[in-house]
Amino acid sequence: MEHSHHRNARVTALKTGQIEFYTQAAEEIET
Fold first, then answer.
1. CA 15, 12, 10: angle at the middle one, nearest 5?
2. Domain count of the chain?
3. How far apart are CA 15 and CA 21, in angstroms?
4. How far apart are CA 22 and CA 28, in angstroms?
5. DSSP codes joined into one string, the chain
6. What is the pLDDT along the chain (31 residues), one digit of tens a residue?
């Protein structure tokens, strides 16, 4: 259980990082 939860946490962090990356890219394009 713990291993699966830890893995899901990493996936969530990765998705969040991607969202932040795309948000920054979008802001740069708008500027």
1. 110
2. 1
3. 10
4. 10
5. -HHHHHHHHHHHHHHHHHHHHHHHHHHHHH-
6. 567 778 898 899 899 999 999 999 999 988 8
Residue that has been written with the tokens 């699966």 in this structure: 4
Residue of 7, 28, 10 lying closest to 18 (CA atoms): 10
Q: Is residue 31 part of a domain?
A: no
Question: What pTM did the predictor assign?
Answer: 0.50
Nearest to 12 by CA among 4, 27, 25: 4
Q: Which domain holds residue 1?
A: 1-26
Residues 29, 16: Cα–Cα separation, whole Å: 20
